[in-house]
Structures are given as C-alpha cells and as structure tokens.
Amino acid sequence: MKKAFYLLFSLAIYLASAQQASTGVTAKYPPVVNFTAEQDHQQMMQQLGIKALRPGASGDEKAPNHANYDEALANPYPDLPEVLTLKNGKKVTTPAMWWNQRRPELVEDFEREVYGRVPKNVPKVTWKTLISEREYVGFIPVNAKQLVGVVDNSSYPLLDVNIAMTVVTPANAKGPVPVLMMFSRSALPAPAQPPKESMEKINSALKELLVKTDPSLKAIFEQYPAYNPVTAVTPSFGSPAGDPPPTQQLLAAGWGYVLIEPGSIQADNGAGLTKGIIGLVNKGQTRKPEDWGALRAWVWGASRGLDYLETDPAVDAKHVGIEGVSRFGKAALVTQAFDQRFFMGLIGSSGEGGAKLHRRNFGEAVENLTNSGGYHWMAGNFVKYGAAEATFGSKNAKDIPVDAHQLISLCAPRPTFISYGIPEKGDAKWLDQQGSYMATVAAGPVFKLLGAKDLGIGNNYKNAKMPGVNVSLLEGELAWRQHDGGHTDAPNFKYFIPWANRLIKQTPSATTR
C-alpha cells in the first residue's frame, strides 16, 4: 500500500512539473500537487498512522450500516465535556476566568483537533471594486457593489485566490446600517439595464452579427421582426403568496446584506486542498495534521470580508452578522465562534461539524466526516476519531476533547440563533435536530455567566426535548426555532430580523467584549 501510494505521489509531482514547465513557469517554485480526494485522504491517514477507518453511516435506512434513528440508542456517551471547568479541574465562576483561561483552552482544542489552525503567514487581501451602481430590489433603491479580494500570491505565483463578494445597502439610509453576511454565490441583485434606445441598438448590432455568422438566421429574423435576442430583465418583487426573499426582507427592515462566495476562497472537496487559500499558503503541497480545512478557510475569507466592511461608510461594522445553511451553516457557526467582531449569527441546519453533538449517535456521524467525503472540511487531526486501527489504537467520538455545545459557547454573549426545518419538508433527520437542541441548551451557562440570556428552559441537556415546530425561543441572546419548512433558514428570517433588531438596540452588557 505504501509503495503504491508513493508511486502515485511521485507520478503526480512529475505530471505537475511537466505541465508547469511547458507553460514557462519558473522552476524555483514547487509544483502544485494534483491529487484526487481519495489520494489526499490516504496520505493524511498515513501521516496519522491510521491503517483502517470505520465506515460512515448510510443515509439509506435499508443499508446494513444505516444511520441510527432510535432515540433509545442515540446517547452512548451521555456526559458532555464540561464547558465551565478548566483542564485543571477548577470551576469557572467569573467572566474574567472565561475570557482569560477557559475560552483559550477551548479555542486551542478546536484548532488542534477539529477545524485546524490558520497559518501565521496567510497573505494579505486587497479589495477592489469591480462594479458600483444604483439598483432596485423590489421597490427599494439600493447601492450595489461587486468586489474582488485579491490575495497576495507573490510567495507562490502558481496559484491565484480571488474572493468574490457583493455588498448591497439601502440607498436612502440616513446612516450606516447593520448587514448580514451570507455564504452564497456573489451576484448583483438587479444589474442596471440600458434604456430602451440602447437596447434597440444592441439588438440591431447583435442580429447583424448573427446573420454574418449564420446567413440562415436572416429568414428567421424576417419572419419574426419583433423578436429581440436580448431583453431587459424584469425586476423581482417576491412571491405574493409567501414571504419575500430574505434579502428583500433585510432591505425592507433597513439592513444591508453581503454575499461572499465560499468556492472563491477554498474548493468544497478534498482534491482542492492543494489549491485555494490552503494550497496557496502551503505552496501547492499537501496538508499537515493541524492545518486548516475548508470550513476554517471559509471563516478566514468571511473575516477578510469583514475587514472590508469596516472601511465602508454605509455599513455599521459593529453590527455585522453571519449566516449560512447546511455546510455553510457549519461555516457560519465556526465564523461567529472564532471571530468575535461578528455581532450575531443565523445558523441554519448545520448538522455534524456544526451545532450537532459529536457524541450523539443519530443520523450523520463523526465517521461521515473522517472518511473521504467530508474530511476536507476539518483539520487532518479530526480523521483520527474515525480510526478503527492505527498506531495509537482506535478513537471515536467520545475521545474528541470538545463538542458542539462548546463551539456554540464560543459565540457568547453575542446573539446566536440556531435554526432548523423539519424532515417532512426535506430538513432530513440526518441533521439531528434534537442533538443540536441539546447542544444549544448545554451552551446556555456560558451565556448566563457573561450576562446574556440563554433559552430560558434550564441547563439539563440530557432531558431537553425540542419545543414544537414553529415554537420560538427568542427571548435571549441564545435563540432556537424549528420552522415548518425544509433545508433552508428562509422561513426564520421574519423572526430573526426583529430578534436581532431588539438586541442591537439594547445596551451591551459590561461583560461583553
């Protein structure tokens, strides 16, 4: 196995060298390693001394290794690691102890074992405005900017990283506005259209060019003289039968929004780990066990986006939120946990690696993130916790030094809204809504210690049962709501916005930072 692996490794290096030599790239830089996800995963297993991994649970309930959905079997490790106890056993009783001692302990464990470390030598980002124009979203006039964050690649010119981001703020705002940054494709909401006369010129020129390319089109245009290849885009005003789109709801409430594109920061696959920002810092080489994964790379990108927002006079940079759904819900939670400049978070359907407890045996399991399908989100070290046979023996979820409730606690005392839908509409049981609720309850003591309000239902996470669907727990800085929709957080926006507005207006506690 080792011999075969190193032959593949040598071949990949050779092919990369040959390709880059043919394009005239200087030989002073090591070539980019081009592995498949399986090859990259295998080399990480070898670094860690892992001989075999347990297979991940199957989403097919008829499969032999199907995921568990029996609550009687869901809590094999019912005792979660203490959130307010130092490693030396001393209880955390004051905010100062949390900020100066316990929080740094948790951050270290999450960085080393779960999400990976951001390298100290990550290059700088220079933001450039590509387009800035006045647009309309529904009936609301907005200022829309499409930007690119150019990452300095002078240390390794073989890779480019250009962060795509769009910033939209209400044009008639009297001052800076709060904004919600969303992990999403970066695109202008309603690009300004040329006037009718200009559209006629464009279509006339385009028809002439098309006929020159294909003379048979002349007869078609003569048969349909009113047809134009290019038509103006009709503005969208939302569906009259349902809620307006989340972006429109934000603007109507006097907010702005930001769309930041994760794939422009780091690819969402294992084959991309030698490229993107992770590959750029590693000069095209494979990761070490403590190196960051895609989740932490997306977090880094969001933080660089916030750097820009702090320079934008239209944005109230003290009240920027972060939002995402599914894998980007994981990224949103990790962003809020690690970058304390983000004031609030809307964490949608985040599941394993997000708000779901690792120690819960329900739906998606740790092993689903230690195998080659999801390992790229995490630090290489996280793969250890799926090991069935290794030089260190074996490890499982119980051996992870931290869990999801402690990740949520790193957001305290800032407003944190955990959102899920229902399995019947597509927010699958796989996500373990109950386990995420238990984690949210278990994070509550940290919010209370820091002068914020938790869910208001006590701290007994072992017996905590989810409220009914569409029942809101929104009285405190820590919030929960399971809506009656699917794999989205859109139905919760009309609850999130007034909840966040109320907390923005409140005087910050003396225990916040």
Describe the structure in brief.
The protein is of the alpha/beta class and 513 residues long. Helix content is 31%, strand content 16%.
Key descriptive features of the protein:
513 residues; alpha/beta; Rossmann fold; two-stranded antiparallel ribbon; 13 helices
Question: Could you characterize the architecture of this molecule?
Answer:
- The chain is an alpha/beta fold and 513 residues long.
- It has a domain at 108-162 and 177-185 and 264-505: 3-Layer(aba) Sandwich (Rossmann fold), CATH 3.40.50.1820.
- It is built from 13 helices and 12 strands.
- The chain has helices spanning 2-22, 37-48, 95-115, 196-213, 217-223, 246-252, 276-281, 294-309, 327-338, 366-370, 404-409, 433-449, 493-505; strands spanning 50-53, 125-137, 140-151, 162-170, 177-183, 256-260, 315-325, 344-348, 387-390, 416-420, 472-473, 478-482.
- Strands 2-3-4-6-5-7-8-10-12-11 form a 10-stranded mixed beta sheet, sandwiched between helices.
- Helix 9 (327-338) links the parallel strand 7 (315-325) and strand 8 (344-348).
- Helix 1 (2-22) crosses helix 2 (37-48) and helix 8 (294-309) crosses helix 9 (327-338).
- It is globular and about 80 Å long.
- Mean pLDDT is 92; it is low at 1-15.
Mean pLDDT: 92
The largest β sheet comes out as: 10 strands, mixed
Within CATH, the superfamily of the domain at 108-162 and 177-185 and 264-505 carries the name: Alpha/Beta hydrolase fold, catalytic domain
**Global geometry:** globular
**Span between N and C termini?**
52 Å
Strand order of the largest sheet: 2-3-4-6-5-7-8-10-12-11
Q: What CATH architecture of the domain at 108-162 and 177-185 and 264-505 do you see? A: 3-Layer(aba) Sandwich
Q: For the CA atoms, what is the radius of gyration? A: 25 Å
Individual helix count: 13
Number of DSSP strand runs? 12
Low-confidence stretches: 1-15
Class inferred from helices and paired strands: alpha/beta
User: CATH class of the domain at 108-162 and 177-185 and 264-505, please?
Assistant: Alpha Beta
Strand/helix succession: HHEHEEEEHHHEHHEHEHEHEHEEH
Strand portion: 15-25%
The amount of helix comes to 25-40%
CATH level-3 fold name of the domain at 108-162 and 177-185 and 264-505 = Rossmann fold
